[in-house]
Amino acid sequence: MKSQGNGLRLYAILYLAFLYAPIFLLPIFSFNDGTIIAFPLKGFTTKWFALMAEKGQLHQAVINSLIVAGSTAILATTLAIFAARASTRFEFRGKGAIMAMIMLPLVLPEIIVAMAILVILLQMGVGLGLTTIILGHTLICTPFAIAILSAAFQSLDKSLEEAAYDLGEGKFSTFRLIILPLVLPGIISSLLISFTISMDEFILAAFIGGTSPTLPVYIYSQLRFPKEIPVIMAVATCLVAVSIVLLIIAEYFRRRGVAKTGGKDSGGFL
Amino acid sequence: MSKDAMIHLQDVQKYYGDYHALRGINCDIKAGEFFSLLGPSGCGKTTLLRTIAGFEDITSGVVMIDGKHMEGVPANKRPTNMVFQSYAIFPHLTVEQNVGFGLRRDPRPKAEKDRAVAEALEMVGLKGFGARAAHALSGGQRQRVALARALILKPKVLLLDEPLSALDKKMRENMQVELIRLQRQVGITFILVTHDQEEALVMSDRIAVMFEGEIAQLADPETLYRLPNSRRVADFIGHMNFLPAKVAGEANGEIDVDVQGLGRCHISARQAPGGNRGEEPSVGFRPETLTLLYDGQTATDREATGLIEEVVYYGDMTYYDVKLDGVDAPARLSMRNVPGRPVLDRGAKARVAWSPSALVLFR
Ligand SMILES: Nc1ncnc2c1ncn2[C@@H]1O[C@H](COP(=O)(O)OP(=O)(O)O)[C@@H](O)[C@H]1O
Ligand SMILES: [Mg+2]
Question: A50-261 domain in CATH 1.10.3720.10?
Fold first, then answer.
């Protein structure tokens, strides 16, 4: 039994190493005083981070990404609130089919979605830019947002609403006083996850972004120039840090929501 | 409709799609009454309660509360408040905020409302619990918060949907007594939904027994127990023995019946309160209305003989299944275990005393 346990443990360690070692290499090389990404390390420097400040295109890409991710998060979450509320509270004809179609982009190859959207946008003569990226990202983020919010609405006891109504509140004030506070952790969690997904999405942004590069598109374009690679490493290090912080916040709110409504934790994305 | 009816229901029909959930409910509930809706799960008790509360639209019929038609009046405008089966305590609010929730639109100054909340908490025995987080309460405490939250609005009618079913036995019995006390104290009409016949008997002034969306019998607990109007009601409320019977004649408010195993006797017409839907006539009696006769004892009224088939000892009571001579199925009778009264053995011959006045005829 013991040796078998050790074998499995070794497997688990290798698996995790394979998953995370490359990511740990990013910060290591971003502080390395040399343009070639190879061991041995040359020495410690922060000049690559300083150099980030001088890249105007990088700044524009970051701004683009923030606009896209911010708008996407708000749009996707808003749409998802309606969809999740409708699917958990009401019965209507074709509900299963409608929900399945909304959730489909979750498993559809993104490249197909990207090509399809591109073809249609070009046919319609719509100019490519940030707006089109936002629309595309909303499409792929909404299923995630719905999954998170459905769980939040699902764990809400219907009689809570009825009780508030019974005690004299109207439909709207019941939503504001009871439903919203109880699903708020889910909403925050949905905003953060949508933001993170949009932030590092590449295929759609590259296909339908026109001449407005988002951060991932900019990073990819810079990889052709070997001397730019250390700066990209620095950018990537910052991105990893921000992503981790956002995901931790999202998970915190999701768990708090579960605890508050007294529900059972059925596992989230983390 | 009687003048003092707080709730008046007239031919209330409710369909869920094709499903006929309420099939013509007629009843008047008096002001200040403790009224129970009793019936097996799925018979439509909750639906009827929610109909009164305004959560369900009825398909047809009339619902009146305190003399006013309720058609088109939404739940938040009705003079009723509900204690939900799940209690529906708002988990993100404190006990105080939960209890005071319904006072949000009350124009009184805050100090006065705070006093009302404190009083309501004291009434349900939760004095000093105001600042607690609601999601950290026990089942019994939640139940009390739900009660206080509903009663603080001084509704004309309090609706309770199986409020005790989630509590353990001991707690449930305590709460039964407390609910009765509370109802007397506030004088509000209580309508309680329950599937527990004992609970309904203990607590109610009157009980409506429901089967499949219909009221089968509406009566006070004693009448319901002594004179059920159908075998089904009789079976649902406690235990009743049935024996085949033949009606030999009827005159002057008296019925002449021939009961298998007991013999021929006269009963009052009052003892035949209802029909039995085309089944063969039968006579019913409760286990405690038959008495085992020990050696040397004689019956004051009538006597029958039989064989003890089963003995079940319950501490304070012993139940005997006795097959009366000339009857196929055994009848259950119960004897209190008092000193000097031995528990008889299985297989022994038995003499039992009975009285025609304790019989109910279903024909
Ligand atoms: N919203 C609904 N839609 C369809 N059927 C319902 C609905 N609510 C209740 N029913 C049905 O109506 C019947 C009565 O339900 P209910 O009043 O909850 O019974 P009880 O409270 O007596 O157990 C049940 O058969 C139930 O399945
Ligand atoms: Mg029910």
Answer: yes
Nearest to A193 by CA among A146, A257, A241, A125: A146
- How far apart (Å, rounded) are the C-alpha atoms in residues A79 and A101? 14
Specify the pairing of strand B302-313 against strand B349-354.
antiparallel
Contact B274, B362 (CB under 8 A): yes
Contacts with B76 from chain A: Cβ below 8 Å: 165-170
**Which residues does chain B have within 8 Å of residue A162's beta carbon, measured at their own beta carbons?**
55, 75, 82, 84, 88
**Tell me, what DSSP letter sits at residue B13?**
E
Cα end-to-end distance, chain B, whole Å: 30
Strand B34-38 relative to strand B206-211: parallel, antiparallel, unpaired? parallel
Mutate which of B18, B23, B45, B47 for ligand 1 pocket (most atoms within 8 A of beta carbon): B47
- Domain residues of chain A, as ranges? 50-261
Among A24-38, B247-261, B307-321, the range scoring the smallest mean pLDDT is A24-38
Sheet strands side by side (includes B254-259): B263-268, B254-259, B241-251, B282-285, B360-362
Give per-residue pLDDT as tens, B166-212. Answer: 888 888 999 999 999 999 999 999 999 999 999 999 999 999 999 99
What's the CA gap between B39 and A66, in Å, rounded? 61
CA–CA min distance B163, chain A (Å):
14
Contact by Cβ (8 Å): B280, B362: no
Determine the pLDDT at residue A267: 47
Which protein residues touch ligand 1 with a CB less than 6 Å away? B 16, 19, 21, 39, 41-47
In one-letter notation, the amino acid at residue A4 is Q
Instruction: For chain B, list the domains and their CATH numbers.
Output: 5-226 (3.40.50.300), 240-283 (no CATH), 287-356 (2.40.50.140)
